[in-house]
Amino acid sequence: MNYRMVSWWIRWEDLEWPLPQLEDKIRYRADKLAENSVSHAVIFGAHFRWDFMPLWMNLHDMFAFIADELHQRNIKLFDHHSAVLTHRYNDRKEMAEMRIKNRHHVSFAPTREVAAMLSYNGKLLNDWRMLDVITGKPAYPGYTAEIFCINNPDFTESYYSYVKKLVAETNIDGLQADDGMFYPRFHACGCRHCREKFERKYHHILPSGNDLSFWGNWRNQAFKDWIQMRHRSVGEFLVGIKNELPEGFPLMTCCSGSSNSASNETSNSYENFIAGCNTVMLEMCGNTPGLDGRFTHSLASQMHHLAVAHQHQVPCIGLGYGFTEAQAGMVWAFNKWLGADMWFSTLKGRLDMKDRDMEALPDDSELVGIPFGFEKAHPEWFDGESQAQIAILFSRKTRDYYGGYMADYSDDYITACKKIFEAGYDAVTVLEIPDSESACKILVIPSAACFSESDKTALKRWLDSGKTVIANGPFGVFDENAERVERQFTDDFELHIELPEIVREPKFPHNTWERCEPARCVNEAKWHKLTDNLYWNPQRMQDMTGDSLFEILSRNFSESDITVIDGRGWYIRKFRDAQGRIIVHVIAAEYELKLDEELESKRAHINNNNIITEIIPKNTVSILEFKLVRDFSKIDFSAPLCSDQTTSLTPAETLSVTVPDGCYYFTLRLTP
To answer: Most buried pick, 69, 118, 566, 630, via CB within 10 A?
Structure first.
C-alpha cells in the first residue's frame, strides 16, 4: 500500500458540531481530498485528548461522520492525538503561551480547580501524573502541560479503555497515539509505580536527584538499568494499545528522530515503539529543505527510521510540513527519494498570524494534487528494494550505554550519513551487521564502541564472505553493556585500540545536547589496513577531514548495472523492483528558497516553519551521465513534479540525461 496522507484539521469552529454547515464543510473537504488523490486523512487538532473528555461524544460523532464521508470516496481516516499530555496553566501568561504556541492543538484546557475533580473509570486523572524525581511534584514536559505516567496501571487501563471506545464509536481505520514516553527527560518519573517497577525488575532503589554517583554516571550499572527500564516501558505501553485494537489495525506514534542521544533522556525511539507499532512514522520538523538550502540535517534520522521499518517489514511514512504547493512537492520528492511514503501537513497554528491573513493559505488537501496524482497513477515507480552497496551501522548499544552525550556517539553516526551522501554515494542504515547475502558490499561502522559476542561473530562472517568493513573511532572496546572487554575484536588482527576513559563529571539533570569533548582513541592517526577488507582509523567521523575515507570507499566500490559518471550536485538512490527493473531516484542536493515576504512579515513569532513559495535547485549539472554495464531493452524517464508524462531514452553504454529547467527530482526506470 502507498500512503498518500494529509492532515484533517479540527479547529475551534468545528467544536460546534453537529451544525448542518459543518456537514457541508466536511463533504467539501472530502471532495478535495478525492480530487487530489489522497488515500488517507489524519485527524490533527483536539490533540490533548484527555482535555476533551467532556466533549468525547461530540468529537467521536464528528469523526464517525468524517470517516463515513471519506469511505464513500475510498479514503481512510486515522485519528491522531496525544495519549498522555494535558494542557495546564497557572496564570494569564501561561494561558497565553499555551494558546499562541499550540493553537493547532485546539487548546481546550481545564483550570487546575476543574482538573483536580476530573475522573475516569472512578480514578482521578491527577493521580496519573508523572512526578519529578527531585521535587515529587508533577513533572513539566513543556507545551504548558503535564503528562500521565505510562507505568501507572490506573492510567494505562483507562487509556486502553478509551482506545476501544474510540475505535468502536468512530469507525476510524488507523491510530497514531502520541507521546507515550518520558518528555520531562531525566526528571521523570518519580511516581511510586516507576520506583516499584525499578526495584521489582532491576533490584535498585531510585536515589534522590542529588546522588551523582547514580544520576548521569554512565559507569554506574544501576543508572544504565534505569535507562533500559524506561526504554522498555515505552514499548510495553504501545503493546498494550495494540492488544486493544483489531488484528492488523495500523498503529503508529510520533517521533522526530531516534538516532540522537536524547533518546536516553526521553525514551523517544522507534526501536522502542516498534514493539507495539506496525507502522513507522518519521516527523521532519521545520522546513524541508532548511533555510540553508539543504536537507541533510534530517537525513540520518530518516535513514534510521527506514532501517527500523525495513527490519520489521512495515510501512514507513514521512511527515513533512509546509504551506504551499512548492513545499508539498519537495516533501513528497524527499520521501520518495528516501523510499518512504508521505504525510503532508500544514502547521498554521504555529505561524502566529491573524486569522484573516492565514485565510490566504490553502487547505492541506489542495496542495498535493500533482505529486499524489502521479503516484496514484504510477505506483510501480515507487516500489523496490534498495540496491545501495554501502550500509552504515547504527549501534543502539553505544547510544544507550556509552557516554550519553551527542559527541560520544550520535554525532559520528549523523556525520557518517551526511558525508557519504555528500560524496555522491548511496547508502542505507542497518541496525545490526547484515547477513552476507545482503545487497550491500561495504559496511561503515562509525564509533560503535559497544559490541556483543554475537556482533563479533556476525562481523567475522561478513569479512569471511569477502565483504568490506570500514570502521573508525571507538570500535568494539566495550561489550553490549558498555563494560570494557579484555580482548577486543581487533586484537585478532594484532591491533589493540587504546581508548581513554571519558573525563566528565556526572550531572543532574543530564543534558545530552551540551557540547563536550568525547574520549578519543590515541592510536596512530591513520587508516590501519588490518586485512585486505578490514580498515580502521582511530579518528572519529566528527573529526575526520580530507578524502581518505572516500578513497577507500572508491577502491572497494564495484560497478553496478548503472554507475554515475557525472552527477555533480545530485543525490542518487537505486532500487530494484519485483520485475527486476532498476529504478533510480535522483534529487538535487542544494536549493535556493524564496519566502512569501508579505505573509512572513505579519508573523508575531518566527520559528523554523516558513511559508516558502519557490524551491529552486542550484549548483547542479544539467546533464547527468551514467555508465550502463549491461544491456537494457527500455529506459524510461520521469520528472513527476514537472510533467505527468514519461519519456523514453535510448539505451547506450554512456547514458546522458538532460534535466528540465527548474527540475530538482526525477526518476529513471531501466528494464532488462
So the answer is: 69
What CA–CA distances, in Å, run from 416 to 121, 301, 439? Answer: 50, 12, 20
Q: Which three cell numbers stand for residue 356?
A: 484573516
**44-53, 135-144, 270-279, 346-355: least confidently modelled range:** 346-355
Question: Domain 562-671 adopts which CATH fold?
Answer: Immunoglobulin-like (2.60.40)
Residues of the chain with CATH 2.60.40: 562-671
Q: What letter does residue 131 receive in the DSSP assignment?
A: B
CB 600 within 8 A of CB 611: yes
Write the CA distances from 65 to 61, 72, 365, 543, integer angstroms. 6, 11, 18, 56
Grid coordinates representing 361 are: 493559505
Domain with CATH 3.40.50.880 in the chain: 390-556
**HEC assignment per residue over 611-646:** CEEEEEECCCCCEEEEEECCCCCEEEEECCCCCCCE
CATH class given for the domain over 390-556: alpha beta
**CA terminus-to-terminus distance, the chain:** 26
Residue with the three cell numbers 539505451: 651
Give the count of beta carbons closer than 10 Å to the beta carbon of residue 606: 10
Region label for 179, one of left (φ > 0), alpha (ψ between -120 and 50) or beta (otherwise):
left
Task: Give the pLDDT confidence of 522-534 residue by residue, as tens digits.
Answer: 999 999 999 999 9
Distances, alpha carbon 78 to alpha carbons 45, 156, 175, 285, 457, in Å? 12, 21, 5, 20, 43
pTM of the model: 0.96
